[in-house]
Amino acid sequence: MKSVQALLLLTLLAVAVTGDDDPDTKCGENEVWDDCASSCQDICFEPPAELCDKQCNIGCFCEKGYVREYLDGGKCVRPDTCESRLTGRTIFPL
């Protein structure tokens, strides 16, 4: 009986360890995980980057059709909802 319990415990432990809920790949709203993306992301109020590295960057990136809210991070938002930090008005990017 103890060997059956031990086998059951080992099986449950193996399932828990190999589950597909990898915490490193969980992203925020309007973000997707990418194992090889450009470091250049579109950002509210910033001109498009002219030079981007070709190296793979791993992490969460904005979904297509979204831009990063701030240069130093923030959430991914639709470009037409970028808000000015200075005035609080909605700014429509060029």
Automatic annotation (TrEMBL):
<dbReference type="Pfam" id="PF01826">
    <property type="entry name" value="TIL"/>
</dbReference>
<dbReference type="InterPro" id="IPR036084">
    <property type="entry name" value="Ser_inhib-like_sf"/>
</dbReference>
<dbReference type="GO" id="GO:0030414">
    <property type="term" value="F:peptidase inhibitor activity"/>
</dbReference>
<dbReference type="InterPro" id="IPR002919">
    <property type="entry name" value="TIL_dom"/>
</dbReference>
<keyword id="KW-0646">Protease inhibitor</keyword>
<dbReference type="InterPro" id="IPR051368">
    <property type="entry name" value="SerProtInhib-TIL_Domain"/>
</dbReference>
<protein>
    <submittedName>
        <fullName>TIL domain-containing protein</fullName>
    </submittedName>
</protein>
<keyword id="KW-0732">Signal</keyword>
<feature type="domain" description="TIL">
    <location>
        <begin position="27"/>
        <end position="82"/>
    </location>
</feature>
<feature type="signal peptide">
    <location>
        <begin position="1"/>
        <end position="19"/>
    </location>
</feature>
<keyword id="KW-1015">Disulfide bond</keyword>
